[in-house]
Specification:
Quinone Oxidoreductase, Chain A, domain 1, Rossmann fold, 6-stranded parallel β-sheet, 12 helices, binds zinc ion
């Protein structure tokens, strides 16, 4: 079958690879309905994480169960399923506390930019739909697997609620999903920080009420002006750079919360500044599994359309162009037809 391997910086290839097999009784094999490229795939692609041997890429997935291991009881062949990029048993103390992304048996999904994929811990990880979804729902269901689940977690961690004033830092796919999540959670005002017209338009479509194009101190100044010098109740940090994190902290009101889901690269926090800011922070890899059943229902009922975040669709064989387009910010997110 065709699969995606990263050989080194900016060297990603679609190649003939071995089909995955059941390795443990708790595994499932799924036939992907579609695949996609994640913003976090760009870290190793750009050489910011070392790649020592060809790495099987892809951790966002949905599809039809082909085969299950002997211990799997909650899903069966023929069902349509979505799983999180974090594989979890959904039974350990961390899972039961809603933090499946810190599961005591946690593994990270790989190899989903392919025709078939192996999903370990299938019982705890996969969520099946009641019926096979219509084809046009596939992009939105695929989005629940990571990008929407992560944006949703940012909003949940920042305690967005009815009437909240929310700032979203970052106009990548996750930030845009954060806007959608804040809207669904009842935010009254959603300020999206973005400099790019196409992303601003999508943010407005997903529910943003204001757009701020300025960054850094200039951006913070405008947020202050927009909030009568109070700051935001909730800030979603969806980038992971030092500048964006400082911006997020400075946009939050005392007592406000920052949900941070951009993987930090070079972020430095000043203990005293944080102390006197009186802001709360909760972040990390999103426990998507906690939100999956609810998010999948929203999609199946056509109440949200997160699949709009895919603005480039390519055949799997052209995966390299999918990475390039996102790396050069020509595309927000690439959907791969498998
Ligand atoms: Zn667990």
């Amino acid at each position: 079958m065709l699969g995606t391997l990263l050989y080194g910086p900016r060297d990603v290839r679609c190649e003939e690879v071995a089909e995955p097999k059941i390795l443990k009784p708790t595994d499932a094999i799924i036939r992907l309905s579609a695949a996609c490229v994640c913003g976090s795939d760009l870290w190793p692609y750009r050489g910011l994480n070392e790649v020592t041997s060809p790495m099987a890429m892809g951790h966002e997935y949905c599809g039809i169960v082909e085969e299950v291991g002997s211990a799997v009881t909650s899903v069966r062949p023929g069902q349509f399923v979505v799983g999180s990029f974090c594989l979890s048993d959904n039974t350990c103390p961390h899972c039961r506390f809603g933090f499946q992304s810190s599961c005591q048996q946690r593994e990270f999904m790989t190899g989903a930019q392919a025709r078939f994929a192996r999903v370990p811990l299938a019982d705890g990880t996969l969520v099946a739909t009641r019926e096979i979804p219509a084809d046009d729902l596939i992009p939105s269901l695929l989005a629940t697997s990571d990008v929407l689940g992560t944006g949703w977690y940012a909003a949940d961690a920042a305690r967005v609620q009815s009437g909240s004033t929310v700032v979203v830092v970052g106009d990548g796919a996750v930030g845009l999903m954060g806007v959608l999540a804040a809207k669904q959670l009842g935010a009254e005002r959603i300020i999206a920080m973005s400099r790019h017209k196409t992303r601003q338009d999508l943010a407005l479509e997903f529910g943003a009420t204001d757009i701020v194009a300025e960054r850094g101190d200039a951006g913070v100044k405008i947020i202050n002006a927009l909030t009568n010098n109070v700051g935001a109740d909730a800030v979603l940090e969806c980038v992971g750079m030092n500048e964006s994190m400082q911006q997020a902290i400075h946009c939050a009101r005392p007592g406000g919360m920052i949900g941070y889901v951009g993987v930090p690269h070079g972020v430095q926090l000043d203990g005293q500044a944080l102390f006197f800011s009186q802001t709360g922070m909760l972040g990390g890899p999103a426990p998507v599994r906690r939100f999956l059943p609810y998010l999948m229902d929203l999609v199946m009922e056509r109440r949200i359309n997160p699949g709009k975040v895919f603005d480039l669709t390519l055949p799997l064989a052209d995966v390299a162009e999918g990475y390039r387009a996102m790396d050069e910010r020509r595309a927000i997110k690439t959907l791969l037809r498998v």
